[in-house]
Amino acid sequence: MTYAFRIAADWGTSNLRVFALDEGGGVLAEASSDDGMGRLTPAQYEPALMALIGGWLDPARVTPVLVCGMAGARQGWIEAAYRAVPCAPVGGPFARPKVESPLIEVFIVPGLSQAEPADVMRGEETQIAGVLAGRPGFSGVVCLPGTHSKWAVIREGRVERFLTLMTGELFALLSAQSVLRHGMADDGEGMDTDAFAAAVRETATEPAGFAASLFRLRAENLLEGLAPRAARSRLSGLLIGIEMASARALWQDEPTLIVGTGPLGRLYATALTQLGASAEAVSGEAMALAGLTRAFANIEEDKS
Amino acid sequence: MTYAFRIAADWGTSNLRVFALDEGGGVLAEASSDDGMGRLTPAQYEPALMALIGGWLDPARVTPVLVCGMAGARQGWIEAAYRAVPCAPVGGPFARPKVESPLIEVFIVPGLSQAEPADVMRGEETQIAGVLAGRPGFSGVVCLPGTHSKWAVIREGRVERFLTLMTGELFALLSAQSVLRHGMADDGEGMDTDAFAAAVRETATEPAGFAASLFRLRAENLLEGLAPRAARSRLSGLLIGIEMASARALWQDEPTLIVGTGPLGRLYATALTQLGASAEAVSGEAMALAGLTRAFANIEEDKS
């Protein structure tokens, strides 16, 4: 094969995905493994990376590898300090882990921090950079659904402020580990959209009822035989609804761009539509890659 | 010792507590074990009970044993059907598990159910009966804090309606199993009352901000070194605050009687006081025993 000119790596808590790029930013090859940050000690990062990219390296030169995500966390490979908003989504100084191989040099993208209210992100800033690479004049709100979903306000190429909500983690804990798990077995049939949408409206418009609405799922299972699919859909809707209540100031006055076109991204689009807001979606994977590709330019700036 | 005239048992998910009573309702002896509903198959209930009460049984007669709590759940010893509110907190028909010993007859107190909004309780109805045993004319709101806290409106000796909130379970999941656990190690120093009270006010008065307030605990830990004790206290306050928002219609117009005088009961009293409401507290253990003692009269009615 042609050797990689550059290598981009999206290194999250659970997975590592790498892309061999040519000089124009085209993808020559890609690979992935489950060597996420959650299972690696610092010494294990270089071997985990080399296991995927070793065959892409030109023995005659040093190939730059740009990494975004949780590999730059305090408990990751090496900490990449946060940059404080308002600022461009991606910029230096990049963290530089020491590597043993003479064939690579590694750069880790810094996360973003916000002083008041306190907040942090790590990984999503690169997806936001990907959004801006494709839409340089974008002004508005970007929503990045996930275990910890992020909402960011973008103005003139900068992240003005952002907000993190633990919605995905709450759903995982409540559906799998709380008393609600008894009526919520995943039958693989996806979501009941009507039950989901009604629950979104319920907590988005009356957030004070949120706490009371949770145990009602268990009671309806016991007393009325509420179906697991409807129960799961309602739990998801209640949680995304209270997220929408917390993020209302962000989405109510302008369209939201959702980063994620899979099932979760579609739920967020449904939720916003239910609340009378408008939403458009772009692929999360494509935005991460576009953001990393764009960020190689920042490395050149950082070096100079 | 004197043999028990009657035996009362409070059989929860994690523990079994039994009391040997004399003819006047006085406590001759008590014992407990960790043979809670959560670890027993139906066949293991009688041995678990006999292990504690065997020495209290008069060989010359059949001793009645009255049980409240999760032993009457569908996944317990034998299901004790729910009674629908509005109704007196305790009444027949009691569930009657078959027992091998000729020396005992066992009665399990039914739980309560509410059709709309759907809700159930099992165990707390007996504590409410204990409240009414001591205050026959009580009219008002009873709050029973716990893993699943209950709020009940009492009028003319009956439970009119009630509400369940999973506050304790949410606290356990978020503080021990979510990303928030990193900044929340229990240093055994109890709660920071100021941090707790401020968080209660925050979500009780602006419940829409609840979802946003959770991850902020993690961000403040990372960016500002928020102390574990303050973080735990704030998480507890945010959760009890959103409970207070959901239960506002119950506590805002009349005093609340809290069943529980331990640390959790005191947090609920602090929360209500912070919100300008008034609260009084009684011992949860004493109310369970008083309720069971009182309920022996219901068994006589049920038999006749």
Automatic annotation (TrEMBL), chains A, B:
Alphabetized GO MF terms: 2-dehydro-3-deoxygalactonokinase activity
Listed GO biological process terms: D-galactonate catabolic process
Name of one Pfam family that matches: DGOK
The name this protein goes by in its record: 2-dehydro-3-deoxygalactonokinase
Species of origin: Ectorhizobium quercum
